[in-house]
Specification:
By secondary structure, the chain is of the alpha/beta class. The protein is built from 4 helices and 7 strands. The longest helix is centred in the middle third of the chain and has 32 residues. The chain is elongated.
Amino acid sequence: MKTTLTLFTAILFFCFNTNAQKIDWDSSYKIQLSDFHSRGTQIGDVRQIMLNSAIGFDFSVVMSNYEFMFTKNFNDKVSNTFNQSHAAIIAQDSAQALQMIALAQYEFDLSELYARKVRQKLFEEKNAFSNFSFFQPVFQQMQQEFSERRTEAINITQFGKDDFKLYGLHKEVLDEINALSEYCKECKPKKRKKK
């Protein structure tokens, strides 16, 4: 029997669906099979395998031009979520499903890393005369970097089958997240002194 592999990841940059069941990223939360609420989720008796991790970071801000001019910290405006309503796994057995869950957790943490990189760039590049569109190149750059790194991890780990390599890549991401600790959603970055 031939197996077909399909992989989807929803990178949601301007998400307007507020009825979806979403989990905000938290370092202590670990994705489980029960988080995949899509009716398409199926374990066993399948010809193809698929992972739709339904993760993504977005930027949402509502403020007047005056407020925008004097706002420097946008950390709380950049969110990273796992959308349970759209998340789906199709796996041949429970062992394969567990590999996919580990890959989804890696992707969720990788998405948090790039959310923090967006927060950092916004903080560093925003000035009093910036307009609302200043964030667009930042998002495009981070989206591209995220996508390239995610694809590379999928290839290196053979879609999560090589758990040793996935563990190593995941540890790197977690270390990078820790290095950007002042760019968590609730954090207030320290102002840099001008030289």
